[in-house]
Structure formats: structure tokens, C-alpha cells
Amino acid sequence: MTSLDTTAVPPTVRARTAGTAxxxxxxxxxxxxxxxKVLEQVSLLMPAGQVTALIGPSxxxxxxxxxxxxxMHELIPGATLAGEVLLDGAxxxxxxxxxxxxxxxxxxxxxxPNPFPAMSIYDNVVAGLKLTGVRASRxxxxxxxxxxxxxxxxxxxxxxxxxQPGGALSGGQQQRFCIARSLAVRPKILLMDEPCSALDPTxxxxxxxxxxxxxxxxxxxxxxxxxxxxxRVSDQCAxxxxxxxxxxxxxxxxxxxxxxxxxxxxxxxTSTAASAERRGPASPRRSAPRSWRRPRAGWAPPxxxxxxxxxxxxxxxxxSCRGGTGPARPDVGPGVPGRRPAARPVRGGGPARPAxxxxxxxxxxxxxxxxx
Length: 372
Description:
Layout: E1 24-33, E2 36-46, E3 51-55, H1 62-69, E4 79-87, E5 90-91, H2 99-105, E6 106-109, H3 121-131, H4 138-151, H5 155-158, H6 171-183, E7 189-193, H7 201-214, E8 219-223, H8 227-233, E9 236-241, E10 249-255, H9 256-264, H10 270-279, H11 284-287, E11 303-306, E12 312-316, E13 319-323
Parallel strand pairs: 3-8, 3-9, 6-7, 7-8
Antiparallel strand pairs: 1-2, 1-4, 4-5, 9-10, 11-12, 12-13
């Protein structure tokens, strides 16, 4: 195989056209951090022009696998790996393969946006050209900046402030801005490590729209915790799993529609069905609201009586209690200085009559003068 020296004749922007999506093939990839093994024989084919979602719980090795695809795992001290990663049939870890060439073909967007703080929006987008040794004239750079920001859905929002710092953008704008910067070098593969984990629903929707629009010209591999997002944007899924004390591995992979339809329509397991049979039908009393329950036997509503203190004296079969605007007043009655006398019953029955004032005399039926 003949290796091309990219430093002898620097490439131009025109030499790298869009629509060159590549196929990525990982074969028996294993990874270690020191003596701790974190990935075990992971083999996965990521076809060209498709979105592959890596799903699974935290700590199962998805982000480590993504860094291996971009040759970033080897930068960690004490990290080692085994296996092959082929891009269109060529091993990216081959000795004759330049690191800059591998990074140019395989771009990456991280979980946290990382715009260059000392550069403007314009300089951030074209920074990859200088780092990879790509020559471009000023009109070509202007066209490239507009093209990449348009693909990332950001051109209308920043076209009037291209010379302002990239760090002045919002979180969702910075994430799309980093996608535009990755597209400037015309990658064949675009890796995304949970790009929407810290974004609001509106920014997440825009990122997902950008992913679906870019899939026609670049192969996308995305790591996500959101199962609904994986179902919306991906063409195929790979489920990673790492049990207690064991390295992560791919336990299932295939087309997204087939995987999610099987999960949602799967019958209950034997243990779940047996538990439901043991419990039996749900009790209507247990599931009914509290306001619908019948009162217990022997229950009677409380009776309320007003006394002279305008407090409430509640009496029922369970005892008595006082309420109203003030505390209980057991010292109400005749002979207590400063207190209004309690009401006294009318002779012969009838409701109680409160006294109008202390010392007032009420005529009883026998004391009333005879009618003339």
C-alpha cells in the first residue's frame, strides 16, 4: 500500500468534497485502564450514511469505545487496547497512518461544548483547516463558514456576529457551533458523545434535526442515555452492558425499529406473571379514592352548638372539642368577673337565650304581665 505524504502538497478545500461518508468497522476491540479491563471483544459495523446509536447504562464502556474510534484512548496514561478499527478497509491504528489524517477523517463532538475561547466564531470554524494543513483562500473560507453553520442550523442566528467570541453563544448554540467546526474539515465519520445531555428540549430538537440532515453526507455514531432519542434519530442501535466486576460488551445490536418493537411488544417474563397471579385481582377498596369509601359502622355526624362566647362546641360520640376563633374558655359562666354569663335554658324547654348584658333580668312566662 502506498502512503501519501500530505505535507508535500497541502490539500485544498475543493479537494475534499462533501458526501463522502465512510464505513467504520470495529473488530474484537478490547480496552484496559492499567490492569482494569473495561471492554471485552467488541465487534460492531457502522455502515456509511447511517446513524448508529450506542445505548446502555453508565459505566458500560460506550464513551471509551467512542474514544477508541478516534484514537483518543491512546492519549490516556496507562491505557492500552487490542483489536482493529477499519475505516473503509484501512486500519486507523496502522503504523503508517498519520494521526492528523485519522482525526481529519473522524471528527468528534463532546458532551460539553468546547469552543476556543480566544477565537471568534469565524476563526473557530476554520481552525481545523490550519491544524490539518488544508490551504484555503479567503473567499473559500467565507463560503466554508457559511456552509458549515448552515448545516448545523446556526447561520441565521450568528451571521451578523461572526467576529464575536464563540463563548458568548448559549449552550445549545455552542453545541451546534462545535458540530459546524467539525464539519469544516469534511470528515467521513462524526462521533457524538451525549451531545444533548445538558440541553433544553428546544435545543435538543434542533440537534436531532441537524443529525438527520447530516446523515446523507457523513456517518454518525452517537452515544446517548435517552432511549427515545435513540429511537428517533438512529438507524441501528448497539446495546452495551457491563455487569458487576466485568468489562463492558455489546449484548445486542441491530436495526433500531426491530430492537425497539421487540422490547415494547415482549410478553411478561415468567417471574412477573407468577407474581401477578399470586397477588390476584386488585382490591376495589384499595384502589378507590378516600372520598368514595363508606363510613364505618356506628358513625354519626357531630352536632354543633353555639354558646355565648361565639365559639364552636362540637359534640359527638367520640367526645367533645371546642373550636372557633379563640381558645377554649372553661371559665365562662355567672360569677366570673369580666366575663359574659353563659346562656341559661328557658323554663319549659326551647333554645337558650344569651344575656344582653351583665345583671339583665329576663322575664319568664310566669312573670309576664297579663294582657289587658
